[in-house]
Amino acid sequence: xxxLFTRLFMALVALVLAAxxxxxxxxxxxxxxxxxxxxxxxxxxxxxxxxxxxxxxGALLTSLAIAAGSxxxxxxxxxxxxxxxxxxHAPWARLFQALGTAPFILPPxxxxxxxxxxxxxxxxxxxxxxxxxxxxxxxxxxxxxxxxLGFSSVDRSLTEAAATMGADDRTVLRTVVxxxxxxxxxxxxxxxFVLSLNEYIIAYMVAGFTVETLPIKIFNALRYGYxxxxxxxxxxxxxxxxxxxSFVARFGDLPRLLGAWSSNES
Amino acid sequence: MTxxxxxxxxxxxxxxxxxxxLTVFFVVPFGIMVAISFFRRVQGAFYEPDFVxxxxxxxxxxxxxxxxxFSLVLAALVALVAVTxxxPFTFLLARLSRRWQVVWLVALLSIxxxxxxxxxxxxxxxxxxxxxxxxxxxxxxxxxEPMSLSxxxxxxxxGLSYHAFPYTVLVLYxxxxxxxxxLMEAARTLGASPPRAxxxxxxxxxxxxxxxxxxxxxxxxxxxxxxxxxxxRPSNWTLSVLITDQAIYQSNLPFAAxxxxxxxxxxxxxxxxxxxVGRKEAAQ
Lengths: 266, 284
Known about the structure:
The structure holds 2 protein chains of 2 kinds. By secondary structure, chain A is mainly alpha-helical. Chain A has 2 domains: 63 residues, no CATH class; 163 residues, MetI-like fold, CATH 1.10.3720. Chain A contains 13 helices and no strands. Chain B has a domain of 155 residues: MetI-like fold. Chain B contains 13 helices and 2 strands. Chain B starts with 12 loop residues before the first helix and ends with a helix. In chain B, helix 3 packs across helix 7, helix 4 packs antiparallel against helix 7 and helix 7 crosses helix 10. The longest helix of chain B has 32 residues. Chain B is globular, with a radius of gyration of 24 Å. In chain B, strand 1 and strand 2 form a beta hairpin. Chain B has a two-stranded antiparallel ribbon. At the A-B interface, helix 1, helix 3, helix 4, helix 5 and helix 6 of A face helix 1, helix 3, helix 4, helix 5 and helix 7 of B.
């Protein structure tokens, strides 16, 4: 009885979580330019339009480039910081850890306005590369958390053994620590990449009038009415996120990454 | 081996780049925003340096009070709905087989990382006349003809709770995954049914976690800026929408900055409170 109730509850949550995505996916297959569900006719034309229409394709490529660049920069900031905090005992340096976490916890509109004020004052308002830096700072929390977790899982007796045998810091990092931490580094990159791809408010405030990312393009297009193309783009977003997180789960330990201690329970 | 204190200056080398980036691109922008909140707005231009409290004085208007009050009530409602559903859900999730946990976690991560634009578009489609849920009610004979359910307060609350739910589960997951399984076993041995053991043992044991999570979700909901525009009426706009509107469309950066500073103070106070509450439980 209780087991049945449990299953029912989980199934209901799954249904509500899936409902909007299923409907949007259905709408994207409409043969006509209408948003009806269940779809009338079947067509993949709207998916094609994402790649053939210059506007959508441009937005897609811009988003991918910004996500790839900002995730790389976020990892480049997070890795040395996490390594330093693990390698040395320096309590005051935790301040930078807090700084790296703050933008993500605060409402994003605050960080967005901060960047707008900064880039406008510095005279670079509207330049595409400012979005890359802004996203990197906003999302640095994710690689910082995953890489810190990666370091904490490294057995210190390994590095001690390497040091005893004459390896200097750099060699220990490269030959012992880095291979152990790499899965966490890749996960951090993946998290930052997906969130940058979906980020709207910072990109919009920093360079909304000159740079059109996919979320900005969708929001602008919404004002002129809903089209099946948007539904197709939405399916793309969901699929991209699910694919990337599945890869993270395949090559890393997702429950552990998200805070469960044990990793060997069946 | 415990970590040693840095000895030479070059031990600090790895810290240089992260510290520089975070200072220049986070601390400095933040400082500039605080400074601008005291600047004077110039009609026709943008603003000029000054030290006035005009922008903060505008908080005393009835309109601002109304928006603030609405934002707080909305965020509190979202936190309540999300945590009420997410707590039992996460408890059950953490007890599934590892394989199923991974499947759920991938799904939850995919939804929580979706842009508000996407969530708003998806829900307004689901609430629309042509593709919406009312069509099911019509098919079942419960309604005579399909209707649009959006924009409305209910649509906004649903969309926000939908977006906040996976976030809530991910915040609760560590505490519930590490929960001592003997706690439930002991209650079961003493004769409590599983639901009774859950309500009388697990919920009280984690009450501080629940409270801390509620505050985190509250801050998360406070930050939403697109869903109120896509699913709500103009009367349902939140402080975050107002800040964006003032900064971009009214070109009143000083007032937007003042509101943002206010929002920072509220959020920081709440986050601090949630850390304090969470720590209290860890100490017990």
